[in-house]
Amino acid sequence: MASAAAAEAAFGAGAAALGLFSYNRGNFQYDASLRFERFNAGREFALEQAEQYRGDMRALSALTQKKNTMYAIMASLCMALCVALYCAGRLGLHGPSPPAWIMGLWYTNNAAAFSFMALAIWLATHAAFRAQSASVSLLTRKIRVPVPTLKQLDQARKFASEFEQQSWGDMFRVPYISNNGAPKTDDTVEVKAGGKGSGSRSHSAPPGRRSRPASSWVREEFETDRAGTITGCAPMLPADAAPEHFRLYLQLQKEWFAYDIYARVCILLGLLSYVHALGYYGLGHINIELRAFWVAHATGFVLMVLHALLLRFDIVKPVGKKELLPNCQWLGPMAWVPAAVGMSLDFRVEFSLTAIAICWVCIFLSYILQFIYTLRLIEIVLPDDWRSAFKAEERIGATWWPESWHVPSSFQHVLYLVAPPLKLQPGQHDLYREIKEGLGSNAEDAGTSQSPRTNQVPQIESVYSQMQYVDSLFEWAFQDAVFSRLSNNGKSQLRTLCDGYVNAKNNSRSSSDTELPRICRECVTGINAIVTEEGGMTAIPGSDSGYDSAGARSPVPSPRDVMGKTEEAHRAGSSLPPFTATQHIQPWRLVTSVVVALAISWVFLICGCIVDVILGEQALVTAPHWSRPPMTRLSLEPHELGTPIGFPWPAGSKPWIPEQMAWHEEKRRAEMETLGARRLSAPGAPRGSGVSAALDGLLSVLARAPR
Question: Does the keyword Membrane feature in the UniProt annotation (predicted)?
C-alpha cells in the first residue's frame, strides 16, 4: 500500500515535472520565435531611420550647395556687367572725357563691385564643395545602414535544443508561484538605487515577486540588445541628445558656415557698389555724351532708391550689439546727391569762381560721405563677438545656428543657414543609436543575474572596443595641429582626462569590471564637451569599433606614448596627415580687407582732389589722346582738340574756347571751319583727299591684277 502511494506520488511528481517542462519549453520556443521577429522588426525600423538620417545629410548639404551655386552664378553675371562698364561702356570713347573726380567715384565703385563678386565666387565655391565633400564623407564612412551580420542573426536565432542549456529553475518554473519570467518594459518607472520603486508589473505577477530575475533566455536577449553592436557601450549622453549624424555634421559645418555667410554678404556689397557705379556713370555719360541734363538726375535718383531698398531689405538693426556708426549706411545713396550737384555746376554755361568753389565743396562732400558709408560697411560685416553674440531663436521653418557661431547679425534674416538640432524633440526617438551603442546595462530590465552562457566574453570584447575608441580620441586630440588650438582650460581638461584614463587602464587588472568602461564613457563625454566648447575642429578619425579595414585588432597604444610619438613625428614632418597644420584665413577677414581697401581708396582720392584744388587739375600729369599711340606720349602743340586735356590752365578757370568744344571725331585744327582731313589721312593731304585717294589706289590695284 505504501509502495503504491509512493508510486502514485512519484508518478504525479513526474507528471507535474513533465508538465512544467513542456510548459516552459513551449514558452521558450514561443519566445524564441518572437525574439527573432523582434530582432527583424528592430533592424527594419533602424534601416528606415538610417535612410532618414542619410536623407538629412543630403538635404543639409544640398541647401548649402544649391544656394552657393546660385551665388556664384549671380556674381559671374555681375562681373560681366562690371567689365562692360570698364570696356565697351567707358566714357570718353565717343566724346570728351568727364572730369577726373566723377570718374574716381564711378571707377572705384565699379572696381569694388568686381572685387566683391570675385570674392563671392571663391567663398561660395568653397562652401558648396566643402559641404558636398562632408556629406559624401559622412555617408560613405559614418552614416551607414545598420545591416545585421551573420553573427548577429545567429545570436538572434534560437534552436529548440538550446532549452536544454537553460537553468533547472527556468526549466521547471511553476506558473503564478515563482517569477513569471517576463521582463520590465522600457516605459516603466526607474527603480531607485536602493532597489525600491513604483515600477509597473504585469497583472499575473503577485505583489512583491515582480523583482525576481527573469528567465535566463530573456536575460540573455536583453543583455545582447543592450550591449550595442558597434561601440559596445552607451556613452554618457543625455536621453534627448541629438543623433550622431547631426552631431558629426554640426562639427563639420563649422568649417564652411562662415564661407556660406560671407558669400551672401559679398553678393550684397557687390550689388550695392555696382548700383553706386551706375549712378555715377549716368552722371558722366548722360551729361557729357548724351547732353541730357534732366535725364541724368532722374536716372540716378531711381538707382539710388534701389540702393536704399537693398540696404533696407538685407541689413537689420542687431539686438544688443553696440554700434559706433548707427544708420550711417544711408549716407551711401545720399553721396550721389552732391555729386549730381557738382556735375551740374562743373558744366554750367557761364564761368564763375563761386560756382567752381561750390562745385569743389560738393565733390569733397560726396567723397566724405562715401568714406563714412564704407566705414559703416566695415562695422556691419564684422562678426559679433562673444560679448554680444546673436542668439538665433529656433523656430519651425526658420534659419538657426548655435549661439557659439559668431555671425554678422545685421544679415541674420538673409543668411538662409540651417544647422542641425542640438537635441531630440518630444516624441522623437533614436533607434539607430540604441542599436549601434546599446542602452547600457539595467538590472531591473531583465534580472539581476547574468546568463550562464555569456561567461563575460561579450563584456571583455566591449571593454576592449571602448579602449580602442578612446585611444583613437586621445591620439587625435594630442596632435599638435589640434592640441595647439585648444585654450589653456581645454588643455588642462584634456590632460586630466588622459591621466585618469591611464591610471584606470594600468589598474584594470585589480579593479572591478565596471570601472574601466565608466572611465571610457567619461573620456568620450569629456572630449566631446571640449570639442564642442572650443569649436572649429574636424571629425575624429578612426573606426569606432577598434578594428582596421582588414577586420583585425589594432594595438592599443598608451595616450602618453601617442602624445610623445606624435610630437616627435610632427617635428620630423612625417606623421601628421597633409594640411593638418594649415591655418585657413577667416572669410570675414577677406571681406573686411576689400572693404578696408575701398576706404583707403576714398582717402587717397580725397587727397588727390586736395592736390587738384591747390595745384590745378592735371598739373602733375597730362593724359594723351586715346587714339594716338604710344599711350604714354605727352600732348603736342597745338593742344588736343575736343577735350580740355593739355591746356596749361585748370579746366573751367577760363571761358571755354571753340576748339575745346569739338568732338574727337571732328579732329579739326583751329584754322579749319569745316570737317577736313581725317586722322588716318596722309600728312599735308588736301581736305577730302583721303577717300578719293583710297578709291584711286584701289582702282589702280584692280587694273594691274592678272586676269
Answer: yes
289/96 Cα distance (integer angstroms): 8
- CA 575 – CA 475 distance, rounded (Å): 12
User: What whole-number percentage of the chain has pLDDT above 90?
Assistant: 24
Amino acid at 22: S
564 contact partners, CB below 8 Å, separation of at least 6: none
Instruction: Name the helix (H) or strand (E) containing 297.
Output: helix 293-314
Mean pLDDT across the stretch 329-347?
92
Residue 198 lies inside a defined structural domain of this protein: no
Q: Are residues 314 and 462 in the same domain?
A: no
Query: The domain containing residue 472 runs over which residues?
Result: 458-576
For the four alpha carbons of 254, 256, 261 and 265, in that order, the dihedral sign comes to positive
Q: What is the DSSP string of 34-65?
A: HHHHHHHHHHHHHHHHHHHHHHHHHHHHHHHH
| The total number of structural domains that make up the chain | 2
**Dist. CA 602–CA 582, nearest whole Å:** 35
What are the Cα distances from residue 384, in Å, to 117, 319, 394, 414, 577? 23, 11, 19, 16, 33
Residue the block writes with cell 569629456: 526
Count, residues in the chain: 707
> Are 499 and 382 within one domain?
no
389 lies in the same domain as 317:
yes
Long-range contacts, 394-397 (Cβ 8 Å, 24+): 394/421
- Contact at 8 Å (CB) between 420 and 250? yes
Closest Cα partner for 481 from 599, 581, 376?
581
- As a whole number of Å, the end-to-end CA separation of the chain is 152
Predicted confidence (pLDDT) at residue 62 exceeds the cutoff of 80: yes
Which pLDDT value is given to residue 111?
95
pTM of the model: 0.65
How many Cβ atoms from other residues are within 10 Å of residue 534's Cβ?
17
- pLDDT reported for residue 628: 42
* 630-675 confidence digits (pLDDT tens): 333 344 444 443 344 445 665 556 666 665 554 443 444 444 443 3
8 Å CB contact between 334 and 307: no
Cβ atoms of residues 275 and 106 within 8 Å: no
Place of cell 505583489: 207
Give the separation between CA 150 and CA 162, rounded to whole angstroms.
Answer: 19
Q: Are residues 479 and 593 in the same domain?
A: no
CA distances from 619 to 99, 447, 511, 647 (A): 14, 99, 91, 10
In angstroms, the CA 658 to CA 642 distance is 9
491 in the same domain as 418: no
Is the domain of 409 the same as that of 498?
Answer: no
Model confidence at 412: pLDDT above 60:
yes
21: confidence class by pLDDT, cuts 50, 70, 90: confident
* pLDDT 10s digits, 77-114: 999 999 988 887 777 666 667 888 999 999 999 999 99
Residue type, 90: R
Give yes or no: residues 558 and 593 share one domain.
no
**Which CA distances in Å does 549 have to 132, 492, 553?**
24, 34, 10
Is 405 found in the same domain as 553? Answer: no
Distance CA 222, CA 214 (A): 10
Chosen domain end from 565, 598, 615: 615
Grid coordinates given for 266: 559679398
Residue 226 · residue 441 · CB < 8 Å: yes
Residue with cell 502514485: 8
Helical residues (DSSP H) of 315-387, grouped into ranges: 331-334, 336-346, 353-381
pLDDT per residue as tens digits for the range 264-277: 999 999 999 999 99
Torsion angle of the four alpha carbons 256, 82, 272, 66, in this order, in degrees rounded to the nearest 10 = -30
